[in-house]
Amino acid sequence: MTARKKAELYLFCTTFIWGSTFVIAKIGFKDFSPFAFITVRYIFATAFFALFFSSRLHDIPRSTWKRGAILGMLVGIGLLLQNLGLFLTSASNAGFITGMMVIFTPLAQIIFLKKKPKLGNFLGIVVVTLGLYLLTKPGSESGIRIGDVLVLIAAVLFGIYIVFLDVYTKEEDFLKLGFVQIMFAGIISFFFLPFETVRVHFTITSTAILVFLALLATVATTYIQNKYQKDTTPTAAVIIFSVEPVIGAVLAYAVLNEIMGWIGVVGGVLIIGGILVSEFAEDIGQYMPWGARVLGDED
After folding, report:
1. Does a structural domain hold residue 141?
2. Does residue 243 lie in a domain region?
3. Helices 3-28 and 204-214, interaxial angle, to 10°?
4. pTM of model > 0.85
5. pLDDT values of the chain reduced to their tens digit, one per residue, 299 residues
6. DSSP state of 100
7. How many domains, the chain?
8. Beta bridge mates, 32
9. 91: in domain
10. Structural domain of residue 164, as residue ranges?
11. What span, in angstroms and rounded, lies between the C-alpha atoms of 278 and 119?
């Protein structure tokens, strides 16, 4: 198995863990307010990371502190907005909207890495926007909810995070970078606590959920992503991550009995379709050469 295939297999495994977090976090909100939930999760995660990798976390260079802090702020603020949004919307909606990070990732590459746009990226954005409109049930009383908007902003931050992670892990020790990232995400969430009415109630269920999220959905996935994403491309990574919202919606239906209705299902299909259109831009360019001339290549 090549290094790239191995990396993509591991990244695919992380999507199943992330996909389950929407439903699991929704259950955890019965005992915790959203910001307190994230803070405790990252306190646990930092402790687990330090415990498992203490022998390799000595002499962290200044560049790693700086870059880990940037990644931690992107993830921390993104998760805070995502969890607050999840508290105000459905788990299935949150899962699909988070999947839009695979649209924002190529856009972040354009802005931060100065890469030229592709025709497929723009087509994907149009299709995904239509899907989001249908998914959020504009004909109902709720329409586009504030929770949907917050999760959408989080998806933008996650897209930027994927681009920065691809650059930073090629130049830094992935374990040290991951530790600093997790620690700063916890610090960010702690400073947001005054903005909510803090509610903390440890039960067997809530504690088990927090341990799962800290150990698997944070430490394990951070380890895998920081170690292996550099062996593939951001485009390949986000194609794999597009499976996450589908898993989230299926679990929301199975566990929380959330029903999107046929219009919501069509919206979800359009979002996934837009994601695939965006990420298969190279193939589109092969069949429509005029698109490459108008919009330019990625290289």
Report:
1. no
2. yes
3. 160
4. no
5. 788 789 888 998 898 888 888 788 878 888 999 889 999 999 999 999 999 999 999 899 999 999 999 999 999 999 899 888 887 887 667 777 887 787 788 788 888 887 765 666 677 777 777 776 776 554 444 566 788 889 999 999 999 999 999 999 999 999 999 999 999 999 999 999 998 999 999 999 999 999 999 999 999 999 999 999 989 877 677 777 877 767 776 777 777 676 666 777 777 778 777 767 765 655 555 544 444 444 444 44
6. T
7. 1
8. 200
9. yes
10. 3-114+146-259
11. 8
